Amino acid sequence: MKIYQLVLFGFLILGQTVLGQWTRERGNGYYKLSAWYLEADQHYTDTGAIEPNATRGQFNLNLYAEYGITDRWNVVGYVPFFSRTYQNDIFSKTTGELITSGESVNSIGDIDLGITYGLIQNEKLALSTTLLFGIPSGNDSGGSDGSYQTGDGEFNQMVRIAAGKPFSFAKLPAYAKAYLGYNNRTQNFSDELRTGAELGLQFFNRLWVAGKLDVVQSMHNGTLSAQNSQGSIFANNVEFIGLGAEAAYYISPKWGISATYGGALDGRIIYADPSFAIGVFLDIK
Questions:
Q1: Which residues partner with 32 through β-bridges?
Q2: Residue 172 and residue 204: Cα distance in Å, rounded?
Q3: For residues 128 and 285, what is the distance between their CA atoms, to the nearest angstrom?
Q4: 7 CB contacts (<8 Å, ≥6 apart)?
Q5: Rounded to the nearest 10 degrees, how much is the dihedral formed by the CA atoms of 117, 243, 276, 2?
């Protein structure tokens, strides 16, 4: 069943920076070039059970950017300029014969573009709101059976409010962030409620280590069935509780490298294996 060849979408979220808390000052920006990878042979079903699937994976090369138009208005963007989705060859466990040949599709992925406004910006608290547009620039029906996707084929609009607070923990610089958002989806997809939090600590004045929690809850108000859609890597009614970690090391005051890990603690219609990302970033303050 195609419904069980699912979903990379949640892990794309886990691998990215939470949009908007502290906005960038005018002319400042943050830019990250990263590679993201997931390969999975098991998934959460629509009841939350874990079952095996043919080994599928996806590899993305991404550019993430934030830029300060003014001290309060920022533009943000996420561009997966190369996206590869694939399935490995399937061999008989008894005879070793090839049952199904592997297949892959390469294209651009779905692009996110948005704008953030800083409602409160001071040394004690940051509060901002973001309007994000999901552009269906990826391939939503690739491969011989239409199930090799690099996008979901729908134009979505997400409104998000986020808060952040800096503090000290054991004399180390630290911060806490949280967000709440509503994602309006088209093409008969269900809307989504999204929430999450992030906690970070700085070590040696160069290394930031952060833990991230992301939750996606479907509103189940769409009519699209993942069973009869052309593939379901970006399926309808995806739900998950995701936990991730990121380490960012500043080689210089502006340049640095990062590594990210993310996985679903619980989910519906989503892969049960973790994702990984590495990147290089430029932080202009």
A1: 64, 281
A2: 9
A3: 18
A4: 43, 232, 233, 234, 235, 238, 269, 270, 271
A5: -100
Three-state SS letters, the chain: CHHHCCECHHHHHHCCCCCCCCCCCCCCEEEEEEEEEEEEEEEECCCCCEEEEEEEEEEEEEEEEEEECCCCEEEEEEEEEEEEEEECCEECCCCCCEEECCEEEEECCCEEEEEEEEEEECCCCEEEEEEEEEECCCCCCECCCCCECCCCCCCEEEEEEEEEEEEEECCEEEEEEEEEEEEECCCCCCCEEEEEEEEEEEECCCEEEEEEEEEEEECCCCCCCCCCCCCCCCCCCCEEEEEEEEEEEECCCCEEEEEEEEEEEEEECEECCCEEEEEEEEEEC
Q: What CATH number is associated with residue 156?
A: 2.40.160.40
The boundaries of the domain holding residue 210 are 2-284
Q: Are 236 and 12 in contact (CB under 8 A)?
A: no
Mean pLDDT score across all residues of the chain: 88
- Give me the residue label for tokens 């960038």: 24
Structural domain count of the chain: 1
pTM over 0.85? The answer is yes
pLDDT higher than threshold 90 for residue 141:
no
Whether residue 10 is predicted with pLDDT greater than 60 in this model: the reply is no
CA 85 – CA 104 distance, rounded (Å): 6
